[in-house]
Structure formats: C-alpha cells, structure tokens
Amino acid sequence: MSAKVNDDLLTERRKCEFNVEELTNYLDGGAQATQNRRKLEDKVLSTKGLFDEVPEEYLSHKEKYENAVRKAVVYYKAMKEAEDPNQTEQERANATYRSLLHAAVFKDNSPFSLHLAMFIPAILGQADEEQKKYWMKRASKMEIIGTYAQTELGHGTFIRGLETTATYDPKTEEFVLHSPTLTAYKWWPGSLAHTANYCVVMAHLYINGKSCGIQPFIVQFRDEETHQPLPGIKLGEIGAKLGFNTVNNGFLGFDQHRIPRNRMLMKNAQVLKDGTFKRSPNSKLTYGTMVYVRVVIVNGMANQLARAVTIAVRYSAVRRQSELKPDAGEPQILDYVTQQHKLFIGIASSHAFTLTAKWLTRMYQKVTADLEKGNLDELPELHAIACCLKAVTTTDTSVLVERSRTSCGGHGYMLSSNLPQIYGLVTAACTYEGENTVLMLQTARSLVKALEQAQSGKRLSPTMSYLSEKVSSRLKWDNSIDGIVKGFRRVAYGKVESAMRSMRKYVRSGLGPEDAWNMSSVQLVAASEYTSISEADIRQLQDTYEDLLGKIRPNAVGLVDAFDFRDQILNSTLGAYDGRVYERLMEEALKSPLNAEPVNQSFHKYLKPFMQGKL
Ligand SMILES: CC(C)(COP(=O)(O)OP(=O)(O)OC[C@H]1O[C@@H](n2cnc3c(N)ncnc32)[C@H](O)[C@@H]1OP(=O)(O)O)[C@@H](O)C(=O)NCCC(=O)NCCSC(=O)CCCC(=O)O
Ligand SMILES: Cc1cc2nc3c(=O)[nH]c(=O)nc-3n(C[C@H](O)[C@H](O)[C@H](O)COP(=O)(O)OP(=O)(O)OC[C@H]3O[C@@H](n4cnc5c(N)ncnc54)[C@H](O)[C@@H]3O)c2cc1C
C-alpha cells in the first residue's frame, strides 16, 4: 500500500492559519524541550522487542500479562539508556510525561506503573531520612518492585475504616500485620498479584491495645530469589476488568506476619523501641501520597484527552458521509457543526487541563516546601483543590473521550481504533485515587466552611475569595472573558449559598448536621463543580459559540497535529498522521486469528451437524 497522505488531510493542513510547530513548542515548554522530547522518542521507539507481534487484544488474560511484563522490562531499560545526562531530572520527566511514550508500548497500562506512580512517591513522602536513603537506593534501580496497598475488599473510600492491623510487639521490636476478616484483605493494588515483591501497606496501628491511627508500613511479601509468597502472606490476582488488565491488580492478606520496627515509615509519626508513640503534627499527612497522585492525574487526563481527540479529529477530516447540500457530494463529517461541537470542546478542555495542571503542580510544590518547614497552613486548601480538579478533569475526560469514540461511528467501537482502551483507562481514574463524588464532597466541605467565614467577615484565600465578593443577584451578562469568569463566579457562589441554605433548613427542621449534609449532598456536589450557568445566559452565549466553532474548523487538524503524537503513541487505525484509515482497518482486520484459516473447525464440529439436523 502506498504511504501517500490522504488528500483531505493535506488540504486541511494547507488551510491551517497558525504555525503548528509554535504551538507544539509552547506545549512542550520551548523549542529545545520539543527537540529533547523528539530525541527521546526516536531513541526509545527504535528499541527492538518493544512492540507486539500479535495485537494485544487477541491474547488471553494470562498471555496479556506475560507479554506486558516482557515489554515493561524492555521499555524500562530503553528509557534508562535514552537518558541524556546533560538534562535535569525535571527536563527528563517533562519529556516523558508529554510524549506519553508508554502508550506506544501498552495499549492498556504497565505492570510497573504503581512502582513509579505510588511506591516511590510513598517512600519519598512518608519515610524518614535514613529509611528514604535505604529504600530509594533499591527502589530507584528497581532491585525491588513495589506497590501501594491501601484499599481493602470492604473499604476503599473510608480510610479510617481499614481493618488490617499492625500491632506493635515491644519484646521483639516488631509489628505483627494481620487481616482479621475477609473484608480486611487488600484488594486492588496494581502490580501486587505477580509483579511486585514489596509494598507500602496502610494499616491500623495498635500499641498496648490502643489505636494509633492509620500508618504506612513497608512490607516484603515475596522472596527476592524465588518470588514465592513469604510465610503468613496470602495473595493473588483480582481478575478481569473493564480496563487495566495488564496492570496486575491483586489481593493480599496477612496471617500474623511479622516485620521489624524500622519498616514503619516514620517521617510523620514514630514508634520508639519501647512502644512510645510520637504523633504526627497532622494526621492527614499520612494521606500525602494520594494528594500527590491527584495532582499528577490532572496532567495525565490532559494528555489522554489530547490523544483521543487527535484520533477523532483526523478521522473526521478523512471520513465522508451523507449530504449537506443536494448533489454537492458527501462532506467531511468534520463539516457538520454537531461534529465540531462534539470534538472542539475536547481540544479546548485538553489545553485548559494542561494549564490547570501546571498551576496545580506549582501550588503542590509550594505547599510541600512549606510542609518541610513545618508550616501546614495551606494543606487544607491544597487538599480541597486537588480533590476538585482530580474529580472534574477525570469526569470531563471520560465524557469527552467517550464522545470522541462515538463520534467515529462504528469504527470507533473497534479495539484497533484504540478509543475503547483509552476510555477504559480514563474512566478508571474517576474511581481510583478517591471516588469522584466523594472527592467533590470534600471540596464542598471546604466551600461551605469558606462561605461561613466570608459571612462572618473573615478574609478568604485568593482561590475562594469570590465567595466574599459583593455580587448583585441580577448579573448583566457580558461575553468578554472577564464577563464569563464573573458569570461563573456568580453561579458558583449561588450554588454554594443555596446548598448551605438547604442544609440550614434541614437543621431547623430537626435533622442533625450529618443528616442535613447527606440530604443536601446532591446540591453540594453541584456546588463543587462550577460547571453551569443559567439557561438564559447560555442562549446569549450560543451565537458566539457557533461563530467560534466556525473559526476553529479550518484549524482543527492543525490544532491536533500540534499535540505532536507519533503514530505509535496514538496506536490507532483511525488517527494516524497520513489518514490511511480504510487501509489500516483492513490490515488490522486481517490480523484477527479467525482470518488465519478459511473454514473454522467449529463449522465441522457444531454448525454442519446442527444445520443438517444431526446434532
Ligand atoms: C474521603 C477522605 C478524604 C475522607 O477522610 P476522613 O479521614 O474520613 O476524613 P474526614 O473526616 O472526611 O475529614 C477530616 C478532615 O481531614 C481533611 N482531609 C482529608 N483528607 C485530607 C488530605 N489528604 N489532606 C489534607 N486534609 C485532608 C478533611 O478535609 C477534613 O477536614 P476538616 O475537618 O473539614 O477541616 C479520605 O478517606 C480519602 O482520601 N479517601 C479516598 C481513598 C483513596 O483515594 N484511595 C486511593 C487508593 S490508591 C489508588 O487508588 C491508586 C490508583 C493509581 C493507579 O492505578 O494508577
Ligand atoms: C483501576 C483501579 C486501580 C486501583 N488501584 C489501586 C491501588 O493501586 N492501590 C489501592 O490501594 N487502591 C487502588 N484502587 C482502589 C480505589 O482507590 C478505590 O476503588 C476507590 O478509592 C473507591 O473506593 P471504593 O471502591 O471503596 O468505592 P466506594 O466508596 O464503596 O464507592 C461506592 C459508591 O459509594 C459512594 N460513597 C462512598 N462514600 C460516600 C460518602 N462519604 N458520601 C457520598 N457517597 C459515598 C461513592 O460515591 C460511590 O458512588 C484502584 C481502583 C481501580 C478501579
């Protein structure tokens, strides 16, 4: 087949009104950063053994895992070898995050992902200096592979309800880890089943029969040579899922499993040899790993959304269907304004999430630097904002990725389009690292508090200050950016105030504050989203919106080209740069194992006797 680029895509690229490379540079953080990223991609993607012979989707559950481990090892080594010693760690991390290189290797996700995403951050955030030195030396070289084991069969959201116990035995200076019930089994941690040999376990600490809260412990659960589970350890894999099937999520139970005292991560709280417990300056510091991951997720969503809209926009420029005007031929489906409406929001949201992620990362860095100096003042605000942005970006990304998928019609349903797998990845993020409704209610809790403070005349932090602005109830709509922001503030204020009024009404009618909170929680969740404005205002905005869609239309392909994803990273029959959609669909269809023989054995075994009445 010829490598010619599809004519419609060529025309689109000619029509583009802006410099695509400039936007790419902007997204990377400068022209040099773009070069660094491309150099990294060239090196890594030319590694032998990194890709599948048979498309992943045709493998069995077990083969998928084994193949993913094989690739994870090759990929890890390739990334190490591609490291440029002249670059800072931050520059390297930027190039890796932006390129989504791992997506070229795993259509699903890596069985090592939890080691990098949570095990190492948990050590960095929860270990004291001595522990950090010891464990990071081993973990950073992957001499040991770890995961983060918090969720249990019975409890994910309610961390204080975790049942795994760690009981200190001062005689032997050991903790005894135990799962007293079936529901106490750790359930979900990625890499846990057959990949990792260590994990950070969140367990309920008891000293002399007294509860000392949930604490982190580093636990070896497999032998380093034989990989056999250690005595007192019961573990396995939790089974097939909507996505994440190569992540190796597992279960883990303890039967009076003993670990030395220095295996409790003691940056915040400490247990001394004689069993003296030294409290953390703030019990929520134990939840720090989750705050970090929530911050990271926002950027991850921006990238996955960019990937999905790149596929859908390129496909929509190539695909022609129906008629707009009689006898004018079939238009590109991208010419339908409804299609533009489905997809351009995805492009815009990806940019918005990228900028938001940068802002949130800066806030995270500032607050963690303050924490190191013992200043905890801004921790509650960071928590509230990270919860809100994790929840909003994952919810929106799931909706917009699914919309990108359905906007490709039947072909979007094919696994070879990669859109179903991207959806599987992003919808998981609505649940992991804090279920979204629960996280929004955390934000709502701090909004309600802030409004109460505003109403009693206290000054609020800049992110909440709109709650103390004097706003007239009839806002005159104004379509400027400033006007739109004011409009959102007005609506957000109105929602928080109305949710609070409703809570007060329930309290006056005799409900306790917790029940009043529960009764008002639908409104409270809405208050934490900031998402909608009134119907009348929307009507005023509609004209401007349709006008903007028309302005974006000639630049749509340029805008997604600027994300600069290689074909291997898109991993899709519908999204490749050259737009050879139909050729690729056929090439991939022919890889189906069912096409290896003209007649399948089931014909002779079942169909023929059935059709001939002999079965
Ligand atoms: C829902 C909450 C936040 C509730 O916690 P709680 O102890 O019941 O607290 P509460 O009584 O509601 O509130 C007490 C107070 O603590 C605050 N707080 C709660 N969390 C934090 C924090 N991280 N930083 C700073 N402050 C925090 C709350 O806002 C409350 O503050 P307030 O009393 O209002 O001043 C918490 O339990 C939680 O975070 N649950 C979600 C569980 C979760 O995220 N699990 C993640 C498991 S790992 C994973 O999923 C990895 C996947 C990765 C992958 O596969 O890639
Ligand atoms: C793909 C994937 C990977 C994961 N990886 C890991 C991992 O590596 N390590 C790990 O420890 N865990 C992991 N998890 C577990 C994950 O963190 C939990 O599933 C998550 O925190 C949600 O908890 P839950 O499953 O108990 O849901 P539940 O809390 O039982 O939620 C069920 C419903 O109850 C509602 N609900 C619960 N509490 C409240 C409340 N207070 N107010 C209002 N509504 C409420 C929720 O909104 C939801 O609708 C993973 C999960 C997934 C899906």
Automatic annotation (TrEMBL):
One of its GO terms (cellular component) is peroxisome. Residues 19-145 form the Acyl-coenzyme A oxidase N-terminal domain. One of its GO terms (biological process) is lipid homeostasis. Its cofactor is FAD. Pathway: Lipid metabolism; peroxisomal fatty acid beta-oxidation. GO terms for molecular function: acyl-CoA oxidase activity; FAD binding; fatty acid binding. The keyword Lipid metabolism applies. This is Acyl-coenzyme A oxidase. The gene is LOC111353207.
